[in-house]
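TL;DR need structure tokens for one chain.
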Amino acid sequence: MLTTVLAAALAVQISTPSLVTTIDAGKLKGEPTQLAWSPDASQLFLQTNERDERQMITKPRYYVISAADGKVSSADAPPAWASDYWTWKSNRFAPGSTTFGIDIKQGEQKLSATSSPMGGDLARGGVDTGTGSSAGDVAAARAQQQSQNVFTLTLKGETVGEFVGTQFLPGYTFGWAPKELGMIAYANRSGRLAVMDQDGNKQQVESTKNVLLPAWSLDGTKIVFLQRNGKSKYDLFIAGVKP
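>> reply
TL;DR here they are.
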């Protein structure tokens, strides 16, 4: 089965993604934050990180994965090819372009109250002290006044990434195709893998969900990505791409 991606001057077909392996973030001691291809497409580089109390990534760990059988091996540092790949994969602009690029906006969003609309002790079955300002009421009011940073990434009117109350990681929700294709792969608002060309034509791959770290092989024939699978597991998929 093939998912057709229509473009004004380019048509590619993306095959149904194949499961390569399932990654247990608990065993790798951190969540995936980078995914890259080797030049010959035989290996993948995976970086994981833990997060601190401010949701900033810390304690990086490095792994190399066989693209053929999914075997995972630890590494002391990222291979040189991984750093080179990540530089263009996560750039704001498509390779070789100064116009096909992502707009990044930073704003603030107020935290939603997690208690019932009344808030405070009364909403939780407490006793009215007559003051109307119990410790619970004060805490609830403070919570409603707090805000968190929001980073929104858009490309030709399409949201290709959003980070709410957590560190903005370039390339986490998108990956540019090689220059010759002039396209981008990304996780859309529905969490599905989607692709877009430089004219804004786009299509999603219906069988996907909870996608992150989409990455295009250097020869443009494959897209690798992760799908969240429960709390700490991630399924690694590879989809073939044909012009």
